[in-house]
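User: Show me a protein chain along with its predicted structure.
Assistant: Here is one chain, sequence first, then structure tokens.
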Amino acid sequence: MVPKPPKQKHNRRGQQAEALASVWLQSQGYELLTHNYRCRTGEIDIVAMDGDVLVFIEVRSLSRRPTEEALSSIHHKKQQRLQKAAQHYLAFQADNLLDPEIRFDVLGVSFRTEHDIECQLLKGALFPF
């Protein structure tokens, strides 16, 4: 079976959502540490500090849908991959953080129109390991 080529429009929208999310998170006082952290077990869109809390952030791009749907779009297997990727990050990248408090957030970026974009952050949306 030949794999399908990636949906370029979908990928562009996801990249645009992540870029907007980064700017928005910084405006909310987050210190961004890493973008698109990839390891064998998964990927984390954004790793940031919110005060003393290490936050793993999943960015969900939505088209003309309420941002509340962002959380429901993350199925159980995706949550497991996020948790494993976070464990990998903690083991190999977080040397200077001594036993940090951890939180998983979901940031829904809703593209209602080209100029009407909304960000909604769901703090503590996923349960840590």
